[in-house]
Specification:
The protein is about 40% helix and about 0% strand. By secondary structure, the protein is mainly α. The protein has a domain of about 60 residues.
C-alpha cells in the first residue's frame, strides 16, 4: 500500500448533524406508488425508437396522429373508442 493511500479510520466525519440519516428507519418504496401514478414515462421498443431522433420528434409524431384520429372520427361519425375492440 502506498504512503498516500487514505486509511478509512483517519477520515473525519464532516457531515452536518442535520444530514445524518438513520437508514434503519427507512421504508423501501415509500413513494413508489405515488410516483407511478404521476409519471408519464413510456419506453419505446428499440426498433420504434430508432425511427426518431429525439423525444421532441416522438411528441410531434404522436400529436399528428392525434390530429389525424380526430379528423377521421369526424369523417366516419364514430368515436375511435367505439371502433376499438375491448380486451380484458
Amino acid at each position: 500500500m502506498s504512503e498516500n493511500a487514505m486509511n478509512p479510520d483517519d477520515l473525519e466525519d464532516d457531515l452536518r448533524p442535520e444530514y445524518d440519516f438513520d437508514f434503519s428507519k427507512a421504508v423501501r418504496g415509500k413513494h413508489y406508488e405515488e410516483y407511478t401514478r404521476s409519471s408519464n414515462v413510456v419506453v419505446l421498443e428499440p426498433d420504434v425508437a430508432a425511427a426518431f431522433q429525439s423525444s421532441a420528434a416522438v411528441n410531434a409524431a404522436l400529436r399528428s396522429m392525434l390530429v389525424f384520429a380526430k379528423q377521421t372520427e369526424t369523417l366516419t361519425g364514430q368515436a375511435a373508442a367505439e371502433k376499438r375492440p375491448t380486451t380484458a
